[in-house]
Amino acid sequence: MGTTQLESVQEPKYWHLKTVLSEALDSEFSVGEILPNERDLAARFGVARATLRQALEQLELEGRLQRRRGVGTTVAPPRMGVSLGTGPHTWPGGSEDAWQPVDCTAAVPPAAVADALETGRDEPVHIVRRSRVSHGRPVAAELLYIPQPSVPELSGIDAPSGAAHARAVLRELQRLEPERQENAVELGSAGADEAKELDRLPGAPVLVVTTRFFAGGRTAALSVATYRADTCRLTFGDSGGVEIHAGIQRQAS
């Protein structure tokens, strides 16, 4: 990183410093590399440590940096693109699905989910929990709600508990012929469970993508996927699923 003159800049010093640091991250650092400590960086750029912290905090919010306890401040990997397209519809758990199953339970879903699935509010459904990891860190957590009629032959499958049970439910779901799916996106904040899974503090900003899968004229499954807002960006096109973007990840979406 080279030094720069900040005294004559009209914009806030921390904002200009953030721009300089961002350019240095692109040209001098690689993903996962640890930045020098705050004292050295502040001295190098001739700014107060408070100004430096403001710039680093802004870069963290933008997903450029990641602060890890016991490690320091590292360069974050590219944002993961959440693609909301109109391409071929496939069921979760297919061969190209990057989600990893964690476990599966049978339980009564939240009332809003039961209404979307058009099941009774007291009727248990299969709840598959899955996770998504990018560059060794958790970036998304999903709850996939599947009503009993969508997997009618599941009782005949020898499925143990945990991830194996989740995979068995997803395999059975593949038997249905997909018709269409609908996506909805909203900005939210991480609850205690989501924060723990995503390695964030409760209240951290997240993107919540709800997907309804249709088959046989009804909702066959409903996915509620929670993405870290500092690691993901929305993309719109004809491709479906979730893609990893390694090229133009710094452009605004």
Largest sheet: 6 strands, antiparallel
Q: pLDDT average, as an integer?
A: 81
Query: SS-based structural class?
Result: alpha+beta
Strand content: 25-35%
| Helical run tally | 6
Strand order of the largest sheet: 4-5-6-9-8-7
Helix content: 10-25%
Residue stretches low in confidence (pLDDT < 50, at least 5 long) are 239-253
Shape: elongated
Report the span from N to C terminus: 28 Å
Element pattern in H and E: HHHEEEEHEEHEHEEEE
- Mind telling me the C-alpha Rg? 22 Å
Organism: Streptomyces iakyrus
InterPro entries: Bact_HTH_transcr_reg (IPR050679), Chorismate_lyase_/UTRA_dom_sf (IPR028978), Tscrpt_reg_HTH_GntR (IPR000524), UTRA (IPR011663), WH-like_DNA-bd_sf (IPR036388), WH_DNA-bd_sf (IPR036390)
Protein name: GntR family transcriptional regulator
Keywords: DNA-binding, Transcription, Transcription regulation
What does this structure look like?
The protein has 253 residues and is an alpha+beta fold. 25% of the residues lie in helices and 33% in strands. The protein is built from 6 helices and 11 strands. It has helices at residues 13-28, 38-45, 49-61, 111-117, 163-173, 192-198; strands at 65-68, 72-75, 80-85, 100-107, 125-134, 137-146, 180-189, 205-215, 218-228, 232-237, 242-244. A 6-stranded antiparallel sheet has the order 4-5-6-9-8-7, sandwiched between helices. Strands 10-3-11 form a 3-stranded mixed sheet, with no helix packed on it. Strand 5 and strand 6 (137-146) form a beta hairpin. The chain starts with 12 loop residues before the first helix and ends in a 9-residue tail after the last strand. The model is unreliable at 239-253 (pLDDT under 50).
